[in-house]
Design a protein that fits this description.
It is a single chain. The chain has a single domain, classed as Helix Hairpins, CATH 1.10.287.1700. It contains two helices and no strands. The longest helix has about 80 residues.
C-alpha cells in the first residue's frame, strides 16, 4: 500500500509540474505571437511607405527634402525590422524549448501513471492470492 501512496504522490507532483509547464508554454506562445505581430506591423508599415514613395515619385510631386525624409524613414523601419526579427527568433526558440519541456513533462507523467496502474494490478493480484489462500484454508479445514 505504501508503494501505491508513494507513486500517487509522485504522480500528483508530476501533474503540478505539467500544469506549470503548460502555463509557461502558453505565456511563451503569447509573447511569440505578440512579437510576431509587431514584426508584421513593421513590415506592413514599410510596404505602405514604399508604395507612398513610389506614388510621389511617379507623380513627380516630391522634392529632394521629401524624398530624403522617406528614405530616412524607410531605413529606420528596416533597422527596426532587423531588430524585431532577432526578437522573434529568440521568442520562437524559447517557445520551442518550453514546448519540448512540456512534451517531456507529459511523458514523465504518463510513465508514472503506467507505474501506478502496474502497482494497482500487483496489489489486486496479491489481494486475490491472499483471498484464495483463505478460501482454500477454509475449504481444507471443513474437509477434516
Amino acid at each position: 500500500m505504501s508503494k501505491l501512496k508513494t507513486i500517487s504522490r509522485v504522480l500528483l507532483i508530476k501533474e503540478w509540474n505539467v500544469r506549470e509547464l503548460e502555463s509557461a508554454q502558453k505565456m511563451a506562445r503569447i509573447e511569440f505571437d505578440t512579437e510576431r505581430l509587431t514584426l508584421d506591423t513593421f513590415i506592413n508599415t514599410l510596404r505602405h511607405t514604399e508604395d507612398s514613395l513610389d506614388e510621389k515619385i511617379k507623380g513627380r510631386i516630391a522634392n529632394l527634402y521629401v524624398l530624403q525624409m522617406y528614405y530616412d524613414y524607410i531605413e529606420t523601419v528596416n533597422n527596426k525590422i532587423i531588430l524585431q526579427q532577432a526578437v522573434v527568433n529568440q521568442k520562437e526558440a524559447e517557445l520551442s524549448q518550453k514546448t519540448d519541456a512540456l512534451i517531456e513533462g507529459y511523458k514523465d507523467k504518463r510513465l508514472i501513471e503506467i507505474m501506478k496502474e502496474k502497482a494497482i494490478k500487483q496489489e489486486n493480484l496479491e489481494a486475490n492470492r491472499k483471498e484464495q489462500k483463505e478460501i482454500d484454508y477454509l475449504w481444507l479445514s471443513r474437509m477434516r
